[in-house]
Design brief:
- 33% of the residues lie in helices and 17% in strands.
- With 155 residues, it is α+β, with helices and mostly antiparallel strands.
- The longest helix is centred in the C-terminal third of the chain and has 16 residues, at 134-149.
Length: 155
């Protein structure tokens, strides 16, 4: 099955986590993310991964997604997801100073309304507003997630 898509998905996740020469290594293995022994071992790792995939909704139009973006590739932390779900489930960027996805802090000194909430709606970035208090910006982002996604990532 080495030419099959599912085989390449497992190979890709193993390479990102185990190979320092992989372009994505710094975002995976370099951050301590690994593939569980059940899926990573060379003897029957592919068979174990394949069985899990088939029992958990694998389809050609879905990608493997780690539910906790800081967690490992393992059965309890993985699912098959659309690219839209994948995009929504990204970790907070290292340049984010607010600690909340979609909420930015203004760099302008003395600016009265220094927190801005945004939301990506298809190809368009929507500015939800500028706020004096971070709690208000977070609430605006949370309400947009509920309205457009039906759930919120913000706890």
């Amino acid at each position: 099955m080495s030419k099959e898509r599912i085989y390449m998905i497992r190979a890709g996740m193993r390479d990102r986590c185990n190979n320092p020469n992989n372009d994505g290594y710094s975002d995976y293995g370099g951050r301590g993310i690994s593939v569980c022994e059940e899926w990573d071992n060379t003897e029957n790792g592919f068979e174990n991964f394949y069985k899990w995939a088939m029992e958990n909704g694998y389809r050609e139009d879905l990608t493997i997604d780690r539910i906790d973006t800081n967690g490992n590739y393992e059965p309890s932390n993985c699912r098959w997801a659309t690219m839209i779900t994948q995009t929504r489930n990204q970790r907070i960027r290292s340049t984010n100073r607010s600690g909340v996805s979609g909420v930015t802090v203004s760099n302008e000194p003395g600016r009265r309304k220094k927190f801005r909430a945004t939301f990506q709606l298809g190809e368009k970035r929507v500015v939800l507003g500028s706020f004096e208090h971070i709690e208000d910006a977070i609430e605006a982002r949370k309400q947009a997630e509920l309205k457009y996604w039906g759930y919120t990532k913000i706890v």
